[in-house]
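Entry type: protein chain
Record version: 2
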Amino acid sequence: MKFSKEKYKILNMIDSLKRNKLNDVKLYFADELEEFDQQYLGNRVSYLCKSSDIYYYSNSISEKIKNKDFDFMEEMKPYLDSSICGSGVILLDKEFQLCYDIWEDKEDDKIVFESYLINDGDFLCMVNNGWIDSKTKLIYFGKSLSVSRDTVSICPSIIELGSSYPIRMAINHQFFKKYAPIENVILSGKLKKKAKLNQETHINKNKFNINVIDSRWFTDIIKSDGFGVKGHFRMQPYGEGRKEVKLIWIKNFEKTGYTIKARKKL
C-alpha cells in the first residue's frame, strides 16, 4: 500500500494543517448548513486532522468492519467505558475518511463523542455528535447530520447502539484496537522506507507518520467434521479468576452435529 496525497486526498489537508498553512485548507459544506455550524465543524475537523494519529487498517480487517461481515456491537456493550476513549483519522478508502474523538465525561458518567465522515478529502458528508450513557449504552445524538452537496437532513435524536454510521465505525475501530491482538507498524514520514506487515508492503510518501494496523486472525483455518459455522468475534474472559477480557476472532470452521428433541405438542 502506498500512502500518497494523490490516493488519499485528505492527506493534503493534514499536511497543510501540520505545517500551519491554514489558507491552503478548504473544507466544503452544503449551502443549507448554518454558518455557525460550518465554522464549528470546520474547526473541529481541522483540529482532529492536525493533532490526531492517522490509522490505516488492513483490507482484511477494514472491509469486514465497513461491510458488517461480522457484528459484535451487542456483545461489546458491557465494555463501552473509558477504555475506548481516543481520537484518530482513519483512511477508510480512496473516497472516504473518518475523523473521530471519544472522551470520558466523569461528572455526568457518560462517554462523549464526535465523528466526521469526509468525502474525497474536502467535503464533510456526515457528522455524529452526542454521548453514550454509561448505564443503558444508548447513544444520544446532540446533532446527527447526513449531508450531500445540496441538502442537509437531521437524524432522530435517540438511536439504539449500532444503528448510527460514522460513530459505529469509530467505536468499532477503536474497540478493535483496544481489545484485539493487533500487529502494527508506524511508517515514518521522514525515513520514507518500505515496511512489510503480514505479507503486505507499505510505504509512506508524506512527512508525517501513519499507523498501519493488521492481525494474523485471517491467516489460520480451523476445520473439523460437521456443519459450517461462520467466522465471528467473541469477547473471551481470561487471566486469574477470568476477570480480564479480550476480543478474539473465531475463524470459519466445521462443527459436529447435534440433536434437538421434538417439542411437546399442546
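Comment: The longest helix spans residues 35-51.
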